[in-house]
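WARN no homologs supplied; continuing
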Amino acid sequence: MGKNFHDKVVYQVYPKSWKDTTGTGMGDLQGVIEKLPYLADLGIDLLWLNPFYQSPQNDNGYDISDYKSIDQRFGDFDTFDKLVQEASKYDIGLMLDMVLNHVSTEHDWFQRALAGEEKYQDYFILRKAQSDGSLPTNWESKFGGPAWNQLGDSDYYYLCLYDKTQADLNWHNPEVREELYDVVNFWINKGVKGFRFDVLNVIGKSQELKDAADGIGKSEYTDTPIVHEWVQELNKRTFGPYDDIITVGEMSSTDVSNSVQYSNPASNELDMIFSFHHLKVDYKEGNKWTLMDFDFDELKRLLDQWQMGMQAGNGWNALFWNNHDQPRSNSRFADPVNYPYESATMLATVIHLLRGTPYIYQGEEIGMTNPNYESIDQYDDVETHNAYKALLAQGMSGSEALAIIQEKSRDNSRTPMQWTSEDQAGFTTGQSWLEVASNYKHINTNVTNPSQHIRDYYKQLIQIRKEYQVISEGTYRSIQLDHPDVYSYMREYGNQQVLVFNNFYGKQTTIDVPEDVLKKDARVLIGNYNKQQLEKELILQPYESIAFLSV
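OK structure emitted
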């Protein structure tokens, strides 16, 4: 595949919800094999799989109890080996999720720590209560509640930044790092061609832990200097010597300067990073579990800030709207009811024509939406249930709390892939682990309008990234960033220019094209309405995207 990944596109499969071949109601690795022709036809290069390792599934596989295993619910190593082989026939490499910040409390390491073995107690971050009897620090868990839980009946508490069944590992212990490098190398030897490192920038907790002034604690453990040292060591000891392995780090609450360092090739750390600031523009006063219209000005500002900042430092962005932790972007930023095709393709255009590597999350290419479940009992996600209880405790009614859950739950993106109009959307012959969205009969891979039309548009976006270096390698600059309805930008490479206009609203709008980018030879490269000429006064239809190429 080569290390030149700038023209590549990654597709994310959430195995649990992709395709069930056994009737258990959960997707499996054989289902991934079965649908490889579908992915190959789309044109993707890397297939990122969420965790399928042995796990009690308290956090849908991100609570790993054995890194070098395959949960029998998903398959076995024979099936995995076949998946690697079959994918390679389509020139598709597998990218695996590596969860190296924490393990399940069912992991052998934690169980031995629980049994009192000092060696394994040093694998975790253990502290005694403060002198006044309070927890070791006042940090909050990312999933709500305190970030500490008692280690059995001992005097110690273990740090758990996520769920209490996910114990944070002590990276200061070199034996822990050796164990984790061995895990990564194990999967490299199985033929894996990419790694997505989960919450990698929070591994650098200080050895001296202290209360946080804000009572939350993110600043105490996020992007600390030692993280860069450890990521460089991870690079050197595992994937670094290979020129055909692509890496991406999920970076929680990070900033541009650290992200440049993580992804600049000269740093010998990672190839690219995920940042999430642009997906918090509908958080009222920074609180996820609230309702508000997205702040378009802030969205544009953040996209522009990260594009310009990463470009200036020779960093590289992973570009995305959707993943297994985010609500569906068309339900969030557009109007999939009245403009299903236009909404999905506009958002796709924005991301795929920016500087960086695009990621497609399963189902976005056919216009899948939030399911809008009618009861909290239909949701599975631990974070969602914790949030619902917290909202009720704040005095909200059940309907008020559910309205927020419907918009913000991680389960919005985890509903089963909608393959057909048949029962369970063709996902399973059994009872699905999570209910299929009720609109599956008119949104699925077999429906022409809108699903197939959206997918055809995605295929075009993937193809032009491979065909035009101005998209895969070109520079970025914004155009009229203060326009109330439109996000527009220019990509330039050599004598090639691409000018991109995106209307984020369900109404017609007009933008005056600056004279310095008004090229007479401009032709339409891609657009989601009928083709039009580049004119001084450009009229855009609801949720219209259009890109003009000049050479």
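The mean pLDDT is 97.
OK
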